[in-house]
Fold each of these.
Amino acid sequence: MERKFLESYFTRISLLVLSIGVVFLTGCSQERDSQILVVGMELSYPPFEMTDENNQPTGISVEMAEALAERLGKTLRIENIPFAGLIPALKTGNIDLIISSMTRTEERAQSISFSDPYLHTGLCVLVSKNSDANLITDIDRPGFKIAVKQGTTGHIYANANLTNAEVLLFDKEGAAALEVAQGKVDAFIYDQISIYLNWKKHSDTTRPLLNPFKHESWAIGVQKGNEELRSQVNQFLADYKVNGGFDKLGDKYLSEQKRAFKELGFPFFF
């Protein structure tokens, strides 16, 4: 009896010590230099988040992050994270901000905070060149296959609203667009900028429905409760716009889209 008591006692002590060690190690793993701004983005969404010929981060969001870090007097570190993993990384404190063309939604706003919007766009559709579809309702038919990128608002919309078509998930935007171009799926739901760019890549076999059926805004993700950082980000965005920062980025990376959207009668994004 005494032996069982001692075994039980030392087992509890061992578990307690192990638990303390795990907590200590976890805490240590999350400690970071306060002078480093860690920004999460998925570097597979040109011209916003991408890599150059030397595999270094570049694009609109990267330049925004660089300017923000400079404004805050910090060194920038970019973490390349799959889109679906960005919010978990922010919630656990592995990154300070999300700057990854992320749409602010009510669902996402329940778990993270958002800055003021810095870009306005909307969901659109890429269809086969010979398709008779002109509206989002035209693709919700029995037997139709609709491609969406996992974790995006296109994915969320399709799950909630398409009741007749089959929704297929893809990890990469390019793969989803290629399925439409090759006639393997009937449509791809994504944001207005990307639908335009993917149509340009596959203009011989696809057609874009560029009038957004659902308007959206992009914002920077901030950890819940960090109102000081959110306020600093909002002030940066306001000043960056007034000082022409977004105009310069638009001219540098989206000059073709600016001309095309003006001709089509769509407002530009910033």
Amino acid sequence: MTVGVALNAADADNQIDATVDLAREASAAGLRSAWFGQTFGADSPQLAAIVGREVPGLQVGTSAIPVFGRHPLLVSSQAQTAQAATHGRYHLGLALGTKLLTEAGFGIPFERPVARLREFLTALRQLTETGTADFHGELLTAATPVSARVPGAGSGVPLLVAAMGPQALKASGELADGILPYLAGSRALAEHIVPAVTAAAEAAGRPAPRVVALVHGVVTDDADAVRETAAEQLAFYERIPSYARVIGLSGAARAADVAVIGDEKAVAAEVRRYRDAGATEVVFSGTEIAGEAARRRTWALLGELAA
């Protein structure tokens, strides 16, 4: 994968049908991958499996399932099913989650998130690669009195983490296949994120990690107005410490300041900056922010860049 897009059809009459339609359009535009978020609505691995079956040329991914409120056995079943359904084109993203959604939604304390991530990744790797696990950690137990293997899923699912902080990056470099940073500008990527995760992977004797940069952006001739709309939509992230930190490391004051908004020349230049900063893949989200015409215009440019 080189250039992809995050698909969001949550406002459609039927989210699944609308997402498949968007995925077909993205593939026709030349985009290489489609990614699906995970909150409390549609199940992202199921959505990826459906899209991957309906649009055979497209890589599909989850970005990202929080490790709180889930269990490696269940996430492994979801991921392996999606991998079998797509014949090897599924990529699983995990996230630490947030204190607000974890405690308000699940009623469980948001404690020791990086330690939980480490245990989750360790157990999940065993399950997706072998269909068995015998993991007994401080926070999680994952054992298989019966097989957890899904025939057709192969011998592993790519595991990525929405990591941006130092400890999460270290854990991801040691235990995952790559990262999914969001709202991290090219400066933060080049100076902080890529060096940290790469060093952790090297120290653990693992291959160079994938860096899938999730970029909020759109092609438009009215950049100032669209950026103000983005500021309203993205303000939520400024209250989350991990995002606030990476926005600051990007040299920005607001989340909207790291959004990639402008005409074709400006957006293409920013994509190149992300690649130069170490991104192995660039995935655009929020392309619907300025309307259908701007979304199609954005996808046309991204398809050209992917080629």
